[in-house]
Amino acid sequence: MSEAVLQTVGLHKHFGALRVAHNIHFSLERGARHALIGPNGAGKTTFINLITGVLSPTSGRISLEGEDITDLGQAERSRLGIARTFQINQLFRGLTVLENVSLAIAERMGIAGGMFKPLSAYNHVTDEAIALLEDFDLGSEALRRIDELPYGRQRLVEIVIALGQKPSVLLLDEPAAGIPSSESQHILDAANALSGDITVLVIEHDMEIVFRIADYITVMVSGEIFTQGTPAEVAADERVRAVYLGQAHHV
Amino acid sequence: MAFTGVMAEHPTVTPNSTRGFFRSRQRLKWWEGLPWVLAVSAFFVLPDYMAFGTQVLITIIFALSLDLIVGFAGVVTLGHAAYFGVGAYAAGMVSAHLGWTEPISALLLAGVIAALVGLVSGAVLLRYHGLTLLMLTLATAICLQEFANVNEDVTGGFDGLIGISFKPLLGMFEYDLWGHTYYWYSLVVLLLVFVGVRIVMNSPFGMSLIGIRENTDRMHAIGTPVYKRLVTVYTLSAGLAGVAGALFAESNAYVTLDVLSFARSGTILIILILGGVGRLYGAFVGAVVYMVLEDELAKMSPEFWEFGVGLVLVLTVMFAQGGLIGLFDRLRKYIGGAPT
Amino acid sequence: MSQLSNVVVSIIFDGLAYAMILFIISVGLSVTMGLMGFVNLAHGVFAMAGGYFMTSLMSQIGVPFIPALLLAAIAVGIVSVVFERVFYAPLYKAGELDQVLLCIGLVFMATASFTYVFGPDPVTIKVPEELRGQLDLGFRRFPTYRVFMIGTGLLMALGIWYGFEKTMIGARVRAAVDNPMMAQSVGINVDRLFRFTFALGSGLAALGGGLAVDILGLSPSFAIQYLVLFLIVVAVGGLGTIKGAFVAALILGVIDNGGKYLWPEGGAFFIYVIAIVVLLLRPNGLYGRHG
Predict the structure, then answer these.
(1) In CATH terms, is domain A4-250 a member of 3.40.220.10?
(2) From chain B, which residues contact C within 8 Å (Cβ)?
(3) pTM to 2 decimals?
(4) Where are the domains of chain C?
(5) CB count, 10 Å around CB of C65?
(6) How does strand A216-221 pair with strand A33-37?
């Protein structure tokens, strides 16, 4: 039984009377391909924001590799090995693909604060960026500005930036969001190509992707964990279907 | 590598130019020599305008300092005159009150003091953003101005600080009535400042500032200590503004309260935006164009000048994003078809 | 009354009159900035335009004070819509820098234009008989015009507050300030609402400008002179709140007035110190909700 690389204990978050996360006990196993699903507004992105430090919990603790990270800021958690992608691309739109990825790599290498040597002197940054881009079939577009790329390619860059951080835990927030299903194959391939050293938590609505990536699924509803289990178990669970159908009725 | 890299069906073709991207960007281009050639030739072509030329050079240094924080880091401030003023008064006061007459050391001292003030104020203010930060920088500068006004025995108050005099530069270059010495002095200072700024902006630090400007959330997520970077560049920016202020005090031998004014903060912001932010050379273009136009048009009619400036600003915002340098870029792309 | 209490009462009284003007001019700015997030440094131009239009009506055509005031307010409100469509609307998505620059440009153009048409010297108006002189309020006599100012200001504050809190349209504005996307999805036409509030805010500014002529004086440098002050009132009060604008105007108006009276050399200091302290502790202003 592999151990938990990321854990939350009794995580609560409310904004006044609005409760967006309630008593979340969550455990992410090392090397897992863990999916987080649930109807809209279930609090999945909020949960990611709590883990990464964008939001501070009202109560509860978060630990990474056994160390309590609850009081650490975003940047510090990132340097400890947590990387995330955003549901809507958060890229440097006016910069080239190469620059986007280089920023992440330079930061990870700890040289991003260097003020006196030109960036071009840091060959290892550029080399690693190019190698990473080539692995994702983005090499030929390395010098193109982000806002010149189709949205699907941008979404791929979003993932590559996160990988540039060489994370041990990768949180993907709806990686296929905004991409026509005909192109989501690339995202799927990218996710599957990730090495076993990285632990992955994916939020996704596209069930096809979920069932092809995940080895374990957590269902979240109204800020709470509704149920958890293997894909087969969750697929067979009547209550899960009801929760989603109930959602459909409201529309 | 953390992935198997079996994604590509068609092997990717990374052009060799990719590897040299950062190097080619940082390499000196031929046209970068132009401003300096022009500055030097101005001495011979327009010898009667050297006093004016000195003020233009000082303005360029001031605008460059602002470009670091506004253009590169994307932090809009309406109070940068605070640091210009601190530098001006520092240099002025060591001369007028302490009898210090060595100009270069006074310049450096002023820069350091301004940088310290920048460090303290930046550390407090840069925890805020947007309109809040804008108002805080504005209010801080005005408070500093009022403070200087109140302490008139030290600063000269409304009447200004007089009794400033410096001995010849390096003991050799006498000051002449035509401002020649100060022109070269300012030009050398500008060159040194520019070289320093260019080095820092081409470094990883410089690129991370651009990242902070373009998408602060993303920078947090990739592990950037955003606040620390901002305070660092703000301190540097304040120090350089102080150097410009010191040159102002030395060259004019007179400092008044308007070195700290909102008008000065606003004007330098306008100059920078007019020239083009985040490009370093925008400071050169903006300062020269603005001050030459002001000198020519304001003489004819102040309202005409004011209206003209306003119109140019409005037109720049609506049609010429990226200022005059942006226009040059677009012109070059149109003619040559080559990317910058 | 004793000497000291006399002085205190005078300061508070004058400060109140000043605060009412600040409120009337700034309230529109607060709401529009809260709605669109647009840093409108040029708001003072509408106040200035209102003042000049009113004085022109009075001196050229002989229109009496109150009607001229109202006409000016309405006219400026209408013209402001054109301004908004032509200059502001294209820049809502643009960065802060561009917005600041545009507004500074407009202020310069307006200031230069008014200087050209009206000359650089301050204009004066002849306030109607009924409002001149002093009013005996029992314990003391006060300048009638200032009493009128305070009374008008309080009535307007009440009226604006009522409109904001109790009417349908006020509710829509509040919803849109709070969450524009949600408001849009619930069927509120945020764009049209914004144009309406912009016109109303500009009209109010014009009204304030007209009322201010007798107290603050009116010259073409008005917009630039008071630019910082209006922004401070809005930032300290909080964007998009009537109550915030009122309280901030009250505090800043009384203290600015008192500060300058008690300490002529450095009195202007106080409002900036207050602004800094408030913003450091409450970045969104006293009553603001989102930044």
Answers:
(1) no
(2) 70, 76, 78, 124, 128-132, 134-136, 138-140, 142-143, 146-147, 149-150, 152, 262, 266, 269-270, 273, 277, 302-307, 309-314, 316-318, 321
(3) 0.90
(4) 3-222
(5) 21
(6) parallel
